[in-house]
Write a structure and sequence with these properties.
alpha+beta, Nucleotidyltransferase, domain 5, 17 helices, 14% strand, five-stranded antiparallel beta sheet, 13 strands
Length: 477
Amino acid sequence: MSHHIKGQGRNQITLFPEALDDFVTKENHVRVVDAFVDELDLHALGFNRVIANNTGRPGYHPAALLKLYIYGYLNRIQSSRRLEKGSHRNVELMWLLERLQPDFKTIADFRKDNGKAITKVCRHFIELCRQMNMFTDAVVAIDGSKFKAVNSKHNNYTPNKVKDHIRRMETHIENYLSRLETADGNDKVDAVQTSAAEKIAWMKQRVAELKELAVQVEAHPDKQLSTVDPDARLLKTQGMNRQVCYNVQSSVDTKHHLIVTHEVTNTNDRGKLADLTRLTQQALAQKNITVLADKGYYSGRDIKATQDMGASALVPKGDTSGAKKKGIFNRSLFKYDKDRDLYVCPAGNELPHKRNVEEGGMKLKVYVDHIACRNCDIRAKCTQSKREPRKIRRWIHEGEMEEMLTRLKNAPDTVLIRKQTVEHPFGTIKMWMGATHFLTKQLKNVSTEMSLHVLAYNLKRMMSIVGSESLIEAIRA
């Protein structure tokens, strides 16, 4: 006789059928999704078809489809076809949708047609977290991460890549023509000529297509063209590697690791600090916040704009000078004397303030001493010019940047805190996405998809922090 636990017979009839609600526990996250969506004013958020027409075939209420998507992204089911299958066999989805079974086209169209409203739902949940006093410290870490687009690297073209393809095709045409000449006098010359002629014709057509593509690439503002997803860009990832992707910017609370705000872009990190800071201040309804970022965000004007908005920025400065390769002194070796407003060079000579200039919209002060530089014994290590002396340019707001770097130096744990804070959500969401990352095309659709991922991440994070039942109580309060 077996001592294993035995299941119930498949043909067993029960006198009192079990209710669907019995299969969903009180702590199940599906109840959080149900309560959260039920409390939303979908019409005010901008969802389509909240108020149904009196005529025509009835449609699904947007609340049901929104619940379906939030549940799907919470459980790593982003595909509309898989969500359709889940509504047929998943007990939790049967409970959540009250046994509704929308088809995949309806599910996909809902995400496509309600992108802005879904983004507002993501912001609404952050507002709920703020009301629950989750952001009392007002310290956020900002970073960007590259997420693969639907467009492959093969279908992305730059001017050099198109030229290489054209040159390769023309070389192949020349090789086939030379093979035709070699085939003369051969018994199989007719078969060779026919095959080669067909390939040459195809390659000539391909060259014409590439030349037309080269014109489009040159006319593009970014000098690159993605043929599958026109908004995706070829960006640097790690080291010198490049990938056709989107750059997702986010600010993450250092205390609870909640994503306060996010933005999908197709450019690099430089110049995004002030924009993310402004969005974070709006989300937290507070201007006095502290922003942590890596050296990729270091830009004097961007940091100045961030501080002018009332935020405190802590951004390390990377050394981008080419002085070392040139074999001359780095600018950092010239010490600034604040009291006398001058620089002291490595040779000990003083470089006083001579004039003011404006370059790239920035007001700069120029420090130089022609006589001391001309008679200096180590001039060759200071400048490669035989006529012009070494000049030091200083931005008029450089003192504020130096004060920030001093604060950063006095808080050595800042770099570690930033990494531990902002890298965790990116890694988690990429794991949920799988190897393909985004499933949709174009920036507006990718932004909608990312909003669903962020909402799912924050929901799961809050359930982990306060528990499902406590979160439901806060939602209904």
